[in-house]
């Protein structure tokens, strides 16, 4: 998710202990908008707050002794077909992740996409293949992969299908949209984006059983 939720001055600070891979493949203190260095993003003016902000805060709260590096390379409104193994979107995400791995350890992949595939009956097969591709190409067969439901402005087949992911692919989890609200047809509002990121952190910590889960 590139992130379209507006953020306030309160959300504009650097996140202590969290670093963002920049356009020069260097680490800088992370701050909103986190997708600004994406090599496949739309115009910079469209990059706002995504779940990575509150995810990072929650992860640091749960694990204050561990620094966190973010590789954010999203493209708003993209279809999952545009993330096929030989596509520019996939290859750029893979390339930047491999650069980041020179300085750290891959802990997980956060994936929030689906509006462009909202009623695609084959989505579960497509995302399962995407996960296999990332795990093979990163030599990380059990890396946690966390996806999320899209908003409830429509009766989207996607939100039913994605819940089946953990029963189809091991070491995956799905974040619920329960109680979240949208600012338009597709995009979560500010407060819901904060909750969404916290839920991603909760799922990540559940896939790391040695750490107590974060609670909203």
From TrEMBL:
Pfam families in the cross-refs: SASA
Molecular function terms, GO-annotated: hydrolase activity, acting on ester bonds
InterPro entries: Carb_Esterase_6 (IPR052940), SASA (IPR005181), SGNH_hydro_sf (IPR036514)
Protein known as: Sialate O-acetylesterase
SUPFAM superfamilies: SGNH hydrolase (SSF52266)
Keyword Mitochondrion in record: no
The keyword Hydrolase appears for this protein: yes
UniProt entry keywords in alphabetical sequence: Hydrolase
Residues in Sialate O-acetylesterase domain copies: 1-205
Species of the source: Puniceicoccus vermicola
